[in-house]
Every structure is written in C-alpha cells, then in structure tokens.
Specification:
The chain is of the alpha+beta class and 180 residues long. It contains two helices and six strands. Strands 1, 2, 3, 4, 5 and 6 form a six-stranded mixed sheet that branches. A hairpin with a 7-residue loop joins strand 5 and strand 6.
C-alpha cells in the first residue's frame, strides 16, 4: 500500500513535468511567431522609408535641373510658335522642334537616372502688359512688361533597382525686349 502510494505520487510528478515542458514549448513558439512578425514589419517600414528617401532625392534633383535651366536665357527661344519644344543637344526624343537646350551640370552628374528635359513655348505667344516684378538690383519705372511664357518639363526615371522616378513642370515668364 505504501508502495502504491509512492508510485502514484511519482507518476503524478512525472506527468506534471511533461505538461510544464509542453506549456513552455507553446509559449516559446508564440514568442517566435511574434518576433518574426515584428521583424517583418520593421523590414517593410525600412523599405518604405527608403522609397520615400529616393523619391525626395529624385524630386530635389529634378527641381535643381529646372532651376538651372531657368537661369540660362539661351534656353528660351523667342522665335517660333506656341507649342514649340526645345530639347537638349544630341537628344532625339520625339516631338522636338529644336535641339538648342544646354543640359545642366546637375543632369549630367546623376547616376542611374535617365533625364528627359524639354522647354515648351506656351500661350499666348506674347503676353502684353504682364505685371512682372523685377528684383531690387534691376530698377525700372514700368509696372508691366511684355512677356513670353514657357514651361520647363523635367522627367527623371530610375534605371537601377530601388531608384525613384519623378516629374517636375515649372512655368516661367520671360521679359521680352522692347525692341522686339
């Protein structure tokens, strides 16, 4: 009788050890699944942050190219009709009427990106009485000038994996000389 009571207590202790081992394995499996989910979520957030960074870099590069083009008066041809497209030298994109556009240094320094750059003449051909405010270094008594309106269209496309693509369209009004 004493023997059977001891063996029943030992059997009960052994079965409870097996149950606690099984419970520990279940908790370990749940922790592993939670850790895998957290890692997967973190990796996705890292990719999303990288995509946003590449998009911002491409946008700033395109804006820089548009700004450089706007600083060169030779890029804006006053002869021609509305809709005339001026493209970079040596480029052969369809629809271009002139190839006199100087490609800025910013566009030439981009690696892994293709640049499509155009300057397009907009309506009206000549805007009479355009209220143009000039800089402080240029003094004029006139409150308005005749102007020609152009559009600078810059498209950057990533050619390597992970590179972004963006497009910037910037309008510009140029003062037309009075002798014209």
């Amino acid at each position: 009788m004493v023997y059977s009571a001891l063996s029943a207590a030992a059997a009960s202790r052994l079965s409870s050890r097996g149950a606690s081992l099984l419970l520990a394995l279940v908790f370990l499996l749940m922790l592993a699944m939670i850790a895998a989910t957290v890692m997967q979520s973190s990796i996705m957030q890292l990719h999303m942050a990288g995509n946003d960074q590449f998009q911002q870099e491409a946008l700033h590069a395109a804006q820089g190219i548009a700004d450089e083009v706007s600083q060169q008066p030779g890029n804006f041809v006053l002869e021609g009709a509305v809709g005339d497209i001026n493209c970079p030298l040596g480029a052969e994109p369809p629809g271009c009427h002139r190839y006199q556009l100087q490609l800025p240094d910013t566009a030439q320094s981009l690696r892994g990106m293709s640049v499509d750059l155009r300057v397009i003449r907009q309506e009206p051909l000549l805007w009479y009485g355009f209220p143009l405010r000039e800089g402080e270094d240029i003094v004029s008594s006139s409150t308005s000038f005749d102007a020609a309106v152009f559009e600078i269209d810059v498209t950057l496309s990533g050619q390597v994996a992970g590179a972004a693509a963006t497009r910037v369209v910037q309008g510009i009004a140029l003062r037309v000389p009075a002798f014209r």
